[in-house]
Write a structure and sequence with these properties.
One of its GO terms (biological process) is double-strand break repair via nonhomologous end joining. InterPro entries: DNA-dir_DNA_pol_X, DNA_pol_B_palm_palm, DNA_pol_lambd_fingers_domain, DNA_pol_lamdba_lyase_dom_sf, DNA_Pol_thumb_sf, DNA_pol_X, DNA_pol_X_beta-like, HHH_MUS81. It is a single chain. The protein is 45% helix and 14% strand. It is of the alpha+beta class and 465 residues long. It has four domains: 107 residues, no CATH class; 81 residues, DNA polymerase, domain 1, CATH 1.10.150.110; 55 residues, 5' to 3' exonuclease, C-terminal subdomain (DNA polymerase, domain 1); 162 residues, 2-Layer Sandwich (Beta Polymerase, domain 2). The protein has a five-stranded mixed sheet, with helices on both faces. A three-stranded antiparallel sheet has the order 4-3-5, with helices on one face. The longest helix has 19 residues. The chain binds three DNA strands through α6, α7, α9, α12 and β10.
DNA sequence: CAGTAG
DNA sequence: GGGCCTTACTG
DNA sequence: GCCC
């Protein structure tokens, strides 16, 4: 049994053969001086197989408990080795009791010591472990739950929708941290395994809910009246509507849009007229966004994405046959049409360095890439067009093959699906062009889900809004 | 640096 | 009262 | 906004 924070997890998880629990579990257990429910923290499953097989909500997993003493030799908050605390716990067993576990704890996590409790503690007779003896325990757990689809719990969906309206309004006002607060609350509601029909359904959660008194009040209003006055005020505000309209232009964000609205520009037509008069009203990218405004409003039919995929692969193979591409995004999720096209270009980082710029160069020469928006070392955002077709948005990302599964998960989305803490965290720490440490090695996306101890969700099931 | 997007 | 915060690009 |  090992408890670790995120930094430890990413550093040592690939070496670890014993279950690891999130530090928050220990923090809160120590704080409240009682063992927190496994359900709230997603304890590790005993084996990879059960992890894959067990559906999220229906699994009434049996946890095996035995008694343990945990000595905490450091202050959980400051992470300094000052405080000393001894707490007796009932823990789920797994391979907890093993000497192997103890030695790993000593070697990797010297701040925590785990010992048998005093003999006065009565061992609840250990149930037989769920997994077969040969099954190897999985590595670590993470405090996230699979997301429920909106149709499962209509009231949860309603709450998220209305809180989302308010959140968006704060985002427009650049009130970043208030926005963050709403985002967290929404993510919480979205991840609940049950429907919120009374306010007690959120009050009884315990731990850090990200739902305080203010949002609790709003949730109550939604439950009782089916509406949220604040959200309706936002939606009826014409200035807000104008800002949102202008934000549909690629490159125009809340600040620019509000500036334009302040100048009396409230529609795309007015914006075009204003640009004709004053060329410096918009920057280069914003002008490209405005130029293709109508085309970019249209979604790209799936068949045309497939055509683009075929074309890009041919270019890539011609530049370097060891490199391949993968179209991620909504295309990979199987949608009939896509808002834009996300393409991962993956291979050895060495070869990508040379090949990536060459690839975009050739596509430009072909006239397929018509406008550049962002042209970085490892990423390209631009506009593409095939003869007789509309313009469309295309993103290309150069991905070293070690980071490929993380990048794939990241760009397959949907954004809401990715909005879970654990998913974000693990992808962020393992997919980044600037990362120094080698990533935790995984062969495919499924292994990332295993890492997080959540059931695998195929791309087609990730299109949640 | 601010603003923007994925 | 103060912290919370993804990263990398453009202008 | 939430949390400490």
């Amino acid at each position: 049994m090992v408890v670790a924070d995120t930094a430890m997890l990413s550093k040592y998880a690939h070496l670890c053969e014993v279950p690891v629990r999130p530090a928050r579990w220990l923090t809160e257990s120590v704080r409240d001086h009682r063992l927190k429910s496994p359900d709230l923290y997603r304890f590790c499953t005993p084996s990879a197989e059960t992890c894959l097989r067990a559906p999220p909500s229906s699994s009434k997993r049996r946890y095996n408990y035995s008694e343990f003493r945990v000595e905490v030799n450091y202050d959980l908050k400051s992470q300094s080795a000052k405080r000393r605390k001894v707490v007796d716990y009932s823990l789920s067993s797994g391979s907890t009791a093993s000497d192997q576990s103890d030695s790993i704890v000593k070697n990797l996590f010297p701040v925590l010591k785990i010992s048998r409790p005093p003999s006065t503690v009565r061992h609840s007779e250990a149930v037989e472990t769920v997994s077969s003896p040969s099954a190897r325990p999985r590595r670590w757990a993470c405090e996230i739950r699979p997301t429920m689809s909106d149709t499962d719990f209509p009231m949860n969906a309603k709450i998220c929708e209305l809180l989302g309206v308010v959140q968006e309004a704060y985002a427009l006002k650049k009130d970043h941290f208030r926005t963050l607060g709403y985002q967290r609350a929404i993510a919480k509601i979205r991840s609940l395994p049950h429907e919120v029909l009374t306010i007690d359904d959120v009050r009884s959660l315990g731990g850090e809910t990200s739902i305080g008194s203010r949002i609790e009040r709003k949730i109550t209003e939604i439950i009782t009246t089916g509406r949220l006055l604040q959200a309706e005020t936002v939606l009826n505000n014409s200035e807000n509507v104008a800002v949102k309209t202008l934000c549909d232009v690629w490159g125009i964000g809340p600040v620019k849009a509000m500036g334009l609205v302040a100048e009396g520009i409230t529609s795309i037509e007015q914006l075009r007229a204003a640009v004709r008069k004053n060329d410096s009203l918009l920057d280069l990218n914003q002008k490209i966004g405005l130029k293709h405004y109508e085309d970019l409003l249209h979604r790209i039919p799936r068949e045309q994405v497939a055509e683009l995929e075929y074309y890009v692969r041919r270019i890539v193979k011609r530049v370097d046959s060891s490199i391949d591409i993968k179209v991620a995004g909504s295309y990979l999720r199987g949608k009939k049409s896509c808002g834009d096209v996300d393409i991962l270009v993956y291979g050895s980082s060495q070869k990508l360095k040379k090949a990536f710029p060459e690839i975009t160069k050739r596509m430009k020469k072909d006239g397929v890439l018509t406008d550049d928006l962002v042209h970085g070392a490892g990423k390209y955002f631009g506009i593409f067009k095939f003869p007789g077709r509309r313009h469309g948005r295309i993103d290309l990302f150069a991905v070293p093959h070690e980071q490929y599964p993380y990048a794939l998960l990241t760009y397959t989305g949907s954004a809401v699906f990715n909005s879970h803490q654990g998913l974000q965290k693990v992808c962020r720490t393992n997919y980044s062009r600037t990362r120094v440490e080698p990533p935790i090695r995984v062969r495919d996306e499924k292994e990332i889900f295993l890492l997080l101890d959540i059931p695998y969700v195929p791309p087609s099931a990730r299109s949640i809004s």
